[in-house]
Amino acid sequence: MSADPHCIFCKIVEGKIPSRKVYEDDEILAFHDINPWAPVHFLMVPKEHLPSLAQVEPRHAGLLGRMLALAPKLALQEGCRPYPEGGHRVVINTGAEGGQEVHHLHVHVMGGPRPWLKG
Ligand code: AMP
Ligand code: ZN
Fold it and tell me: Rounded to two decimals, what is the model's pTM?
């Protein structure tokens, strides 16, 4: 699936909307959430437009595995303390009742000292 011209995260991937970049490779972009719930809060997105976890197919398994494996590394890079005292939360909101507002698959990674604003 190619970029969706109406999708805000596709525009971020294409550099048409600015973001504070955390990480980038050929298939993944990570950037700070504009409205953080926690001292560390960034989003990881596939560069490919995928609306949500509900559209994931077996061919995406490698990509999702690489995103999950990357999350703790980037969390440490962004200032989360190491497991087990520190750690981080990984959330993938899916669909309206799952709390998803932006329909381009994204992984929230949140961490840092509590209390948090939310979550
Ligand atoms: P969700 O409710 O899981 O769809 O989360 C969407 C997230 O995207 C929210 O936490 C927003 O704060 C975040 N967000 C929306 N627009 C931007 C943007 N332009 N740059 C960074 N984060 C954004
Ligand atoms: Zn998109």
Answer: 0.97
